C-alpha cells in the first residue's frame, strides 16, 4: 500500500481526528468510531472497520492510513522486560521498552531520535540528536507494544502506565508529545488515567509551566545531583536552568494539582553523587515541595567513565532520605541483559553532527519562547 501524499491518522488526537474528518465531509462520530478501531481493537486496515460503510472505507483508504513504526528488531529479557527497536526514516531507529511488574505494566516511550542535552551518564547522549519524533511515531510506540502484548483498553490492560523517559527530552518536542499523551489518556484512545502517564524532563523550567497549561500528567525530573556545581557537570542544562529555578517551576506545577507530587530521579554513581553529604543536601531540596525520590543504580554502558554505586552506598543514601522523612525508593534494575535498563537506550542515530548544532540553538530559542 502506498502512503505517498496520504495522512497518517496516528498523528491526531481526538480533536485533530474530528477536524480531519470534517475536512472529508464526515461527522465527528465517524472519527470516534475510527479511533476506537485503531486504539481499542488495534486495527490498521480500513477494510476491517466493519461498522463503517463501504463508501467511507474506500474514501479513507484514498486519503489516509494508520501507520505505526516498523519493528526492526525486538527482544525479550529473562525478567519479562521487552524491547523494540523501531525504524524511523533515513536509517534512524528508536527504542521502546515494556517493564512488567506484578501489579502494573509500564511502557517507556521515546520522544526524539537521539538527544542533544548531553547528560554525562546517559547512553542516548553519546549518539547526539537527529530529530523530533512525529506524534504518530510517539503514540505508534504504544500501539506496537499494545498489539504485541494483546492490550485491550478498559478490559485487558497490559500497559497500565506510560513514561516518557526513553530517548530524548520530551519538552523539546512539546506539541507532538502533548498530542500523543492526549491519545494515551483519551477513553477512545488507550484510556489511561492522567496520573499514569508521566513526562520526565531534564529540567526545562519554562516548559514545565507551559506543560501545566497543556496537559494534566505526572511529572518526573531528572535531578541526579543536589547542588548546582555537580549538577551542571552531570546535566549541562543546569547551567541554563539552575536548581532553584527548576524547583520553583516544579512547585508551581504541583500547586495546580492537589494530592500530586513530583518524582525526582537520581542516578547513583560511585564516588560522584552518592556520598552522605549529597543525601543531606538532597533532603533540604526535597523539603521545598511535595516530592518523592527515585534512586536509580547507574547502568553502565560501553565507553562510560562512571560506575554503579555499591549496594551499601545505595542503602546508606536511601536511609538518610527516609530517616529525614523523604519518600525514597530504589529502582530495581530491569532488562539489563538486553540493554533496556534506564539510561542504556541507544537506538540508531544517523546524520547527527549537522543537526546537533542546530538543536542546541533551538534549545536556546525554544526555551526563550516559552519564558
Ligand atoms: S538523560 Fe534524558 S535528557 Fe539527558 S541526554 Fe539522556 S535522554 Fe537526553
Share of residues in strands: 15-25%
Number of helices: 11
Whole-angstrom Rg:
21 Å
What fraction, in percent, of the residue positions are helical?
Answer: 25-40%
Query: Unreliable runs, pLDDT <50, ≥5 residues?
Result: 366-371
In short:
This protein has 371 residues and is α/β, with parallel strands linked by helices. It has helices spanning 14-23, 28-39, 54-63, 135-149, 174-185, 205-214, 228-234, 243-255, 276-286, 311-323, 353-370, and strands at residues 7-8, 64-65, 70-76, 82-87, 93-101, 104-108, 112-114, 129-132, 161-164, 197-201, 218-222, 262-268, 291-297, 328-330.
Structural description of this entry:
With 371 residues, the chain is α/β, with parallel strands linked by helices. The protein has two domains: 7-65, Orthogonal Bundle (DNA polymerase, domain 1); 70-370, Aldolase class I (TIM Barrel, Alpha-Beta Barrel). Helix content is 35%, strand content 19%. The chain is built from eleven helices and 14 strands. A ten-stranded mixed beta sheet has the order 3-4-5-6-9-10-11-12-13-14. A two-stranded parallel ribbon has the order 1-2. The longest helix is centred in the last third of the chain and has 18 residues, at 353-370. The termini are far apart. Mean pLDDT is 90; it is low at 366-371. The protein binds iron/sulfur cluster. The site of iron/sulfur cluster has 12 residues, from loops.
Q: Keyphrases for this structure?
A:
2 domains, tRNA (adenine(37)-C2)-methyltransferase activity, rRNA (adenine(2503)-C2-)-methyltransferase activity, disordered C terminus, S-adenosyl-L-methionine, binds iron/sulfur cluster, 371 residues
